[in-house]
Amino acid sequence: MLILYASEYCPFCHATQLVLAEKHIDCDVRLVELANKAEFPHLLSPYQHVPVLRDGERRIYESSVINEYLEETNSQSRLMPADPGARAQVRFWIAFVHDRLVPAYFAIMNSANSAEWPKLVDNFHRWLRFAEDRAFADGYFGHEHLTLADYALYPWFERLVSATRYRGASIPLDCLRLKDWLMRMEGLEAVRECRKTEQQYITFFDKFYDAII
Questions:
Q1: What order of strands is seen across the sheet that includes strand 58-61?
Q2: What is the pLDDT of residues 184-197, one digit of tens each?
Q3: Span 123-145, average pLDDT
Q4: What is the DSSP letter of 38?
Q5: Which helix (H) or strand (E) segment is 96 a member of?
Q6: How far apart are CA 184 and CA 171, in angstroms?
Q7: d(CA 116, CA 10)
Q8: 2-73: in CATH 3.40.30.10
Q9: pLDDT confidence bin for 26, thresholds 50/70/90
Q10: What does the alpha-carbon distance between residue 195 and residue 208 come to, in Å, rounded to a whole number?
Q11: Mean per-residue pLDDT for 82-102?
């Protein structure tokens, strides 16, 4: 059986758990406490990160790599299009999440200077509008069908209460296609299976941040 080493509130781990759920793949998910990661470095990636997937003697690192591995080794519920050009487009949007949206989110959350927050929130909103204008015309994120890109993006919106409660960031009112996409995602069986409540996120993030609303 596959083993996934994961952290409970890690959005990258969440993305992989969504793919596992969508594909109905049996997997032993073993939660690790990253605050104590010095105690189990052998379970983590070379960067000391999770998720890590163990498939027999194979160890696969990084959520986007793991998710493509799961796609390539499990034919049920395909999450990449057959056309090479369409696959490239999906990979572009996965890279957008990791290279543009995620750094903008962490820039907000890691700043202790409240005077910086409006500018950082504006930058985060800029990338949300970038996606709004380009990615959701076909209903899903960068494609007409559900793909790995949707599951790379969704975890950041399930925990968006963190940016709202502690930094004042939210989905802009004019991002209507993004909001429609989020409603569609929330109706998926895999999302419901893996979902945490807003209160669970608040309880977790309240340990690290002071609420401003």
A1: 27-31, 2-6, 52-55, 58-61
A2: 999 999 999 999 99
A3: 96
A4: G
A5: helix 84-96
A6: 16
A7: 25
A8: yes
A9: very high
A10: 21
A11: 98
Q: Which residue ranges does the chain devote to CATH 1.20.1050.10?
A: 84-205
CA distance 44 to 66: 14
**Encoded tokens for 75:** 């034919």
- The answer to whether the beta carbons of residues 21 and 77 sit under 8 Å apart is no
For domain 84-205, which architecture applies? Answer: Up-down Bundle (1.20)
**Token pair recorded at residue 102:** 């995620």
Residue 169 to residue 191: CA distance in whole angstroms: 23
Dihedral angle at the C-alpha atoms of 23, 153, 203, 188, nearest 10 degrees?
A: -40
Nearest Cα residue to 152 out of 14, 1, 6:
14
Q: Which residues of 79-103 are buried (b: 16+ CB within 10 A; e: fewer)?
A: bbbeeeebbebbbebbebbeebbbe
